[in-house]
Amino acid sequence: MVSKEKSTGKPAPAARAPRTPERAHPVTLREVAEAAGVSTATVSLVINQKKNARIADETRQRVKDAIRQLGYRPNALAKTLVSGTSKFIGLVADGVATTPFAGQIIHGAQDEAWKHGYALLIANTEGNRDLEKDAIAMMLEYKVRGILYSTWFHRPTAIPETLREADFVLVNCFSPEPGAARAVVPDEEQGGQSATEILLRGGHRRIAFINATIPAPAKDGRLQGYQDALEAAGIPFDPELVLEAYPDQEGGYGATAELLKRNVTAVYCYNDRMAMGLYDGLRENGLSVPDDIAVVGFDNQEVIAAHLRPPLSTVSLPHYELGAAGVRMLLGLDEASNDAAVKIACPAVERASVTAHSPA
Description:
CATH architecture of the largest domain: 3-Layer(aba) Sandwich
Strand content: 15-25%
Number of domains: 3
CATH topology of the largest domain: Rossmann fold
Shape: elongated
Number of helices: 13
Helix content: 25-40%
Distance between the termini: 93 Å
Order of helices and strands: HHHHEHEHEEEHEHEHHEHEHEHEE
């Protein structure tokens, strides 16, 4: 198609580049001083809340009004250099940020930090030692108030040398070196006891425990809690009722055949993933939960436990509270000892995988 418009013989105007919005310049100390009719030194004294400075109340109020009206923001870095510390708390983690349920550690730490006027600087290292070293060094340069050092599962850990240059708290981990560091960890024994008590309250007496094969504080603590609950109920501990499997869905599924030889009415699993596999194994053998066998897990992974059919009774790992408690410990708001880690309770979450059972 030929255009009917007549050519003017003039070149078409070049397209204009999009206009870049002008950035508002930060308000300076001098502008505040001019607005308040005082010197920059007076403004500085008011901002830094120098109580001994001889400044009239009316003058102090004029400066505050000018700061508010102009939107002046004090230079945090300059204040850090003067005070020797900042309003930041560091959190260095090996995988917490990328692990859905353990990510609650960050949530708890962040909420508690904000509550006390601090912001959280987070570094997720994925276990890379060089990255971890650089992250801690950066936080030291920013003069953080302190550092939370966290792991995504409860375990002993070596303390990085650079971490010792800061005030720090271990979260969800602990140092095997006695008296080396303050730490906050889940109470695995209490959690194991609470999980077993759910089944005991349901009237069960012959209760199996499928433990993990991997050595960890959770393996030992959850077994001890199981034994403590049985003892408190007057039930003798039977080692034959303790099985071991890899702590995942396949491990729970694979343990089913051996479990059914034990003639039990209830099972406590090391974690929710094992319980999910056990559900499958029981179903394939024509058994139902909880009518034939009651099941309890551990961890309370919402994506698993709340959505199994029937929903799984379990014990929750207190990740949110671990993060919050770590901040409180760092700020000296909670008592702590270097001699032993502070243990945070693991609350029971009862759902439909356990019902009242009448012993034969």
